[in-house]
Amino acid sequence: MPASREHVPDLPPVTAPSPGPVTSDDRSRLGCPSCGSSHVAQVLGDNGGVSYVCTACGHSWS
Fold first, then answer.
1. E strand or H helix at 26, and its extent?
2. Chain centroid to CA 44: how far?
């Protein structure tokens, strides 16, 4: 029988990365600044820059 959501262990919150270049270490722990989810996709921004979008809540940032 599948575990219910009540049986999922608490995970530590994911902090938003500091401004500046994104390192490979940052990419491995990138989290949404809005909801804290680690389900983040990297997308091409409007002017060719890098942006991110949270696949959990839809928040986007660059």
1. helix 24-28
2. 16
